[in-house]
Recover the amino acids of this structure.
């Protein structure tokens, strides 16, 4: 079974940009590209007041034609599949993300709907929060495509393994340049005069650095061609990683993995990057 990068399209400029990015990534990784257009069919009660199914299908095919035309300029020899799903976009993309053949899902920050000026739409937000497959949400600055480095936040927990794996894979498929950032935050108790400090910031920084190098050792062996630059920084993870995205083509961040409410499923760091990063963001849930 051939694996694919799936791009959600709806005819908007944002989704066409997502299709272009997905095509370039699929070509780098030697995968196929699947262009998915989802549009819920009208109920019998709605059919008298909205477009007919024939009109909806026509719009869907036009959106796919537009996306495929844009993709052909980016990767003319890429294998491309087209899929029209008569379901709500969020549901359709999450269903596709659960298939073993799906390696990556790419979506624009927002589509045709939503509020003007809203940076991140509900479809992108919910797919990133609940997809078992890594999701790239487009956004950031136009010049991000010209950059080469992949950046990943490594927090030191067991949930950090899968984001590291995806970051090394993305770097290996492109520029071989990977920046790994370990962020630690000085606990409030440590700055209180009533609580004795067990270690200085310098000692904590050094310990975090040793732990990071230990965590990276197997990945360095697996990807010897990837040039890895490490940083250990005291601060808030979302703020530090946002700054790191200014020089990156892609940021990789782990989600909390919690189920239920969308915000909690993402976690504060992923949530912050989706809204403020200067490049596309890949959200990865624990395996």
């Amino acid at each position: 079974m051939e694996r694919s990068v799936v791009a959600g399209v709806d005819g908007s400029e944002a989704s066409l940009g997502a299709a272009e990015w997905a095509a370039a990534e699929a070509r780098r990784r030697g995968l196929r590209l699947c262009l998915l257009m989802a549009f819920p069919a009208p109920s019998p009660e709605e059919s008298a007041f909205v477009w007919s199914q024939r009109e909806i299908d026509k719009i869907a095919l036009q959106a796919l034609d537009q996306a495929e035309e844009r993709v052909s300029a980016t990767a003319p020899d890429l294998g491309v599949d087209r899929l029209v799903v008569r379901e709500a976009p969020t549901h359709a993309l999450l269903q596709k993300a659960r298939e073993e053949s799906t390696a990556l899902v790419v979506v624009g920050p927002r589509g045709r709907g939503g509020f003007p000026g809203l940076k991140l739409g509900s479809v992108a937000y919910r797919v990133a929060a609940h997809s078992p497959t890594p999701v790239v949400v487009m956004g950031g600055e136009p010049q991000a495509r010209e950059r080469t480095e992949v950046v990943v936040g490594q927090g030191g927990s067991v949930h950090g393994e899968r984001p590291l794996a995806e970051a090394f894979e993305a770097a290996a498929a492109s520029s071989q340049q990977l920046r790994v950032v370990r962020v630690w935050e000085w606990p409030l108790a440590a700055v209180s005069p009533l609580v004795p400090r067990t270690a200085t910031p310098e000692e904590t920084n050094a310990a975090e650095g040793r732990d990071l190098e230990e965590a990276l050792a197997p990945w360095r062996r697996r990807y010897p061609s990837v040039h890895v630059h490490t940083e250990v920084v005291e601060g808030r993870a979302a703020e530090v990683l946002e700054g790191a995205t200014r020089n990156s083509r892609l940021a990789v961040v782990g989600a909390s993995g919690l189920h239920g409410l969308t915000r909690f499923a993402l976690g504060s760091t992923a949530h912050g990057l989706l809204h403020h990063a200067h490049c596309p963001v890949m959200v990865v849930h624990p395996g």
Remarks:
- The chain has nine helices and ten strands.
- The longest strand covers residues 177-184.
